[in-house]
Amino acid sequence: MMVEQPGGAKGVGARVLRKEDDRYMRGRGQYIADIGFVGVKDVAFYRSPVAHGRLNGITFPPHLRGRVFTNADMVGVKPITALTALPNFKPSVQPPLATGKVRHVGELVAMCLGDTRAEAEDVVAELQVDIDELPAAVDILESQAADAPLVHDEWGDNINLTSTWESDLAAAKAAATHVVSREFRTNRQCMVPIEGRGAVAEWNSRLNQLVLHSSTQMSHLVRTGIAECLGLEEAQVRVVAPDVGGGFGYKGIMTPEEVCLAWLAMQCGHPVRWLEDRREHLTASANCREHHYRMTTYTDDRGRILGLEGVTAVNVGAYSSYPVSSGLEGAQIVSNLPGPYVVPAYRCVNYSVASNKPPILPYRGVARTGVCFAMELMIDAIARAVGREPSDVRLENLVPPSAMPYTSVTGKNFDSGDYPHAIGLAVDAIDLASVRRRQQTREPDGRRIGVGFSFFTEQGAHGTSIFHGWGIPMVPGHEQAVARLTPDGSLELRIGAHSHGQGMETTLAQVAHEVLSIDLQKVKLVHGDTEYTPYSTGTWGSRGAVMSGGAVAVACKELGQRITRIAGHLMQTDPAQLRFADGAVVGPNNRMSIREVAEIWYHKPQLLAPDVHPGGLEVTAGYKPRVDTGTFSYACHAVVVAVDVECGSVEILDYVVVEDGGKLINPMVVDGQIYGGVAQGIGTALYEEMPFDSAGQPLASTLADYLLPGSAEVPAIRLIHMETLSPNTEFGVKGIGESGAIGPPAAIANAVNDALRPLGVEVAEVPLTPHRILSALAAARVGSPS
Fold this sequence. Notes:
This protein is of the alpha+beta class. 28% of the residues lie in helices and 23% in strands. Helix 8 (368-386) packs across helix 9 and helix 13 runs parallel beside helix 14 (544-571).
């Protein structure tokens, strides 16, 4: 069989408008809040008002019986337990509703039912909850102390997991002419998708099945977790994810609220609903990115790294979230810290530290945003120590293209790329020479100009060996897809992953078009429903295009073989001489539309060959890259800023991203992913922070306190695409969904430090708020000689 590769108008590589946007822009999307059931009632939760305390009892007026539920009511429901196989990991037990102790502000204590959400909240207000407040473990370093309050008494300390990487640094230390040490911190922030979490649950007595509608990225794993907690067979649980208004990892776990609603639906005989409000989101569960780094590099006079060592920590909060566990972040820090550089010797230890804060969750980039921040600020510190341009020091240390594929010091298999060329493109695009000239003269308004770079790789589409090696329970295997030709010649695709903004309804239709030439509007994607889709660990880790795209391609190729066998018989032509073009099977002398083939298979089987494939025009196929350790996209971010030394404000003057995501299925969709990611990264760099006081109280409970970048704060980002194909995937695709969010904090911080360097100021903590910048300036003035 010959398959025509259009490569232009509609297939892989085409800038096609997103199919799903028509319904989104017309207000026809269906989100959790749009799902209505007859007789549905609303749930509100009493959430712990303290970070740490003994829960002594809950009382309420007699007329509220049957409307208030506590842990004592949920007999037989197992607690949420997310384990790993990593050595030294200490499991936590998270009851869906608290019992014995509360361990963070916002922890669920009681579930209240009302005809409306307002009525349910009124029920919450009538509860009397007796909690003896205890001292709280809050700070990431103080929580490691021997006398720190214990989050889980049975542990004996607050160290949830210790992750290490060891190699001999003796030679590096002996040969080094420069030793550079720094300390860095990234603070807690929230994910803030436009749509918060939510769930609607009902018990179908006819099917003996729980149906849970949830705004989730991983419907099959939620089904598994719900079945485990409630003691059900997985066949008794159906999880449906409708349109999802952003996830970013926040919707990549099973939540206690989902367990509670699922249990309640089985008890009360009517559907129940919970919709997260913004205060719940900010204060109760949506935390991420609280890291601490102490790092030392050993280099030669040119800044070439001979050895790297670090002591790092991540504040994982009170519980280990299912299924990713609290071990994922720390394991990622240790394995990713050396970045895209040649590091001959490396030693690192990470402490995953429990605290009386909400559990830390995977967020776009997972640990890599913090890792990039720490490593890239180290590169600039090395450049200052050896007196070279930071971009040149990066070139000194980056893995060269001649070494690809390259195995890093921690075993990362960089599949392909030209890292130095990306740096060169960024230097030219930002016009580094003119920025340096501009810095020689004072700005008319007194502000100081700085330029900063960051470089990183993004490991995407992690495979079986990676997650098995990390001991994480959500180990991915072959990704499956179903391709079915319908009687009218349309194509139905079924996948287990789910789109929450990536445009998968369009990009996977483009993959199918590339193989079968079926018009994009005749391709329908079914996803997000465990009843109808193949099992999948879901959408996370930049795996959609690689894994689901690969599975769709394989399924469509096999389906294409069946189509050409049928068409070859009907056209009296050798199937090997047939190809697909414009929705038809084309031979040397004739053609037959795919619709005709479908009509004959379904409605006129008497015309088929006796040996026609009995499986018909429906194919289930599995896909796994040839090397399953992940793809490695990469990027260089370059930014020019202006810093006002009087008020501490930072303005982004220019922003360039040089990105290599392999073959881009739809460059327009990728551009949108990068723009959105950079906006989130700017928030991490300059604005977004969830601070806590010494008692563990969150101090930013509304969007008036928790600052998000808006259109005025996000500049016109300039994108430059490189295209180095992965040798291991269909079409050479690499994962790219998290990339935009990884680079901005490091690039912006380096630019601010570059601007303030003449004043002897160096910032090492994000977000770079005016207060932190002014404090650093004041400290430099105090420390400078008179």
